Amino acid sequence: MATNMFVNLPVKNLEKSISFFKKLGFKFNAHFTDEKATCMVVAENIFVMLLVKEFFQTFIRKEIADAKHMTEVIITLSATSKEQVDEMVDRAVQAGATTPHGRQDHGWMYGHGFQDLDGHLWAIMFVDESNLRQMD
């Protein structure tokens, strides 16, 4: 049996976050969606739970970090091409995201990223495995 991965992120406005990520092409599981949370499907076994901050707070005793001013994690998703990296970041920016830094092209690895509406950092990365094998 495959292990599922759930990343839980606090969000200020659930409806705006859902709209934002739909513009990037993500789908949501209606069975795990209500006014406090939603389940964004990233891949077959990878999910992001977007939880309104007040609900998120019920799971922890510590203060919620303000992702617009501090970073605890960068969520990295793979892409199948450099073009797919650029397309995803472009869609994110059109939907209201910002880009914390420019594209990074190392030949065998290409990446770019965005900061979502709540300040969470997302990296989109393409690794050219044919070039990677040549480096061995």
TrEMBL record:
InterPro entries: Glyas_Bleomycin-R_OHBP_Dase, Glyoxy/Ble-like_N, VOC_core. One of its GO terms (molecular function) is dioxygenase activity. Pfam families: Ble-like_N. Residues 2-127 form the VOC domain. PANTHER family: BLR2408 PROTEIN, BLR2520 PROTEIN. It comes from the Bacteria. It comes from Pedobacter steynii. Keywords: Dioxygenase, Oxidoreductase. Gene3D superfamilies: 2,3-Dihydroxybiphenyl 1,2-Dioxygenase, domain 1. The keyword Oxidoreductase applies. This is Extradiol dioxygenase.
